[in-house]
Amino acid sequence: MIVRRTAAWLDERFGSNALLHAALKKIYPDHWSFYLGEFALYFFMVLVATGVWLTFAFDASSENAYVSVLALADRHHPIGYVIRQIHHWAAVCFVAAILVHMGRIFFTGAFRRPRELNWMVGLCMLALASFTGFTGYSLPNDGLSGTGLRIAYSVALSIPLIGRWAANVFVGGDDFPGAQLTTHLYTLHVYFLPVAIGALLGLHLFLVIYQKHTQFVPDPEHVVGRRFWPDYALRTLAALGATLAVLALLATFFEINPVADYGPYRTWIVMNGAVPDWYAAFLEGALRLGPSTELRIAGHPIPPVFWPGLVLPTVTFLFLLLWPIIEARLTGDRAAHDVLEPPSRVPLRVGVGAALIFDGLLLTIAAGDDQTAATLHVRLDTLVWAYRILLFAGPLLVGVLAARIAAEMRARVPAGGAPPPDVVMLVRNDRGGYDEEEPQAG
Amino acid sequence: MLIFALPVLLAAVLGATPSGAELYAQKCASCHGAQQWGSPDGPSLRRVGLADVDFYLSTGRMPAAVPWIEVEHRDERAGQQLPLAQIRALEAYLAPVVAGGPALPQVVAGRNADRGRELYAVNCQQCHGVGGTGGSIGRADWAPALHAATIDEVADAVRAGPGEMPRFGEQQFSQSELDDLAGYVLLMQSGQPGSGIPSSSTGPVPEGALGYLAIVVLIAFVFGFWRRESGGRSG
After folding, report:
1. A254–B76: do the CB atoms touch at under 8 Å?
2. Which fold has domain B2-98?
3. CB contact under 8 A, A93 and B226
4. pLDDT 10s digits, A37-48
């Protein structure tokens, strides 16, 4: 009744019912893997909601930041403990959900024409989400994150020509940690980056709705799926509920980022086993495996951290950003596609994806090489060299193997794209028995 | 050798502790020398201090079962763990020889956990890690985990500085500071909240792995209802 009246009231003033009707009856293709992006969306919503609360409790000055977080990290805090726990867990899961979602898009070919731009928007959100996560991880000014910031500062210093200037502007002084470091991080983490993510998120969703979602149903003419209301809306609400439940469980049973144990940051203490949150750990791993020779170009020194710390992530990012164009060029397939492919359809893509995943995983594991060496009782030197060899040999081996497997899987599926349907038509024959009707290709 | 070994064997059969001299001759002298001046296989024990002797014996690093393990892998408890009575007998025998180095420390678990945590963070965490997980130092050595260390072993190590570890004398740690540090190590081992061992997480990367597990749970959830509704068809 109230809903009906409100709708009528709004419609009389804005003529909104036509739009509402179109929105509610819009068809969305359905598949379990299409919920991955929604999980990311819900984690982001939780991050904003809990983040707003945390801004009231956090003191964004270098001197008091640690103490204000320490109060929240205490289990006896009436509400702050659980909100901070949920916030940090949601951040960890947010980036994970984005990456898994991106993997789905990549391996099913959802990024192909006409959706290249939305792939790029999504990739920018991944970078922004990682950066937001890193700035948030750095805010408490504890021993662990201070070490991470010190490394980031050194990497920033290594940028040719502008490095020193840029790094010092960021920390707000000639030395680390500058007076304005926490304030700058806070501004980035609380205003600039989340707003940028929000803007891109709006564009991302608009493009999904405007260009229509891809589907597995091999029908390029029609969108096959469920109406938004009530079918899809209730399902996505269930996904939201599950997301909240999982976060609540994590926050209740697993203590994250115990800043009290890390202690406040002191510039003269660097501890063993210091690693960033998982999404930045591959950079730490790259720094640990990277070369240690300093190049000189026209008299200017290029510090060794420049290559693994900045060149590697930039090149990887650009490669992924341009992948829709690269793939179209390599395969010669420039047609528009609304129908998704099973991952095995393009062995090249499978090989490249598997190689990237292998190296990402290896660099992430390499971030903890000191712990691994101590646990396995191997010399750190031996481990570093093993990782270095694997870093180049592994992706080749894994990539070729994955591409081969994909090629063989593709060979088994009859040409025409669609796997044989589960529903079999039986036709009665002259003798009174039944024959299977041949499935129609396409 | 046999002449020395015979009384030890006899004593073992009879259940009595062999004397320190007998134990030294049997377990230590082949590397450290009959007069404790050392040999090409082992360092001199003269003036190393009783804390050092106690550290190596009570943690089971010495007597070495396989000498190269002891030399290469300092945190490996690969030696022959002697019974306490034999350790005490050896120490009593060696006391006059090793005198001049760090003395055997006395330690009780202190109650000031905040000071213990602070001392640990400033002096120990760099190598032994948050929560005493241990970690690599340099390219080829590592600091051991502290999960199994007793407070006496901690005190020995602090005063004697075995291997790569620095020596912390009375100037660095007063007796009461040593007590608080030892108390904090115990608290860390207990895994109580705020004690140093994160109760259910061992750092950001395992936290990330748990985050992925959460995503898998969510996928299982939607896969469950999607499969039931669509009869498992992938189209």
Report:
1. no
2. Cytochrome Bc1 Complex; Chain D, domain 2 (1.10.760)
3. no
4. 999 999 999 999
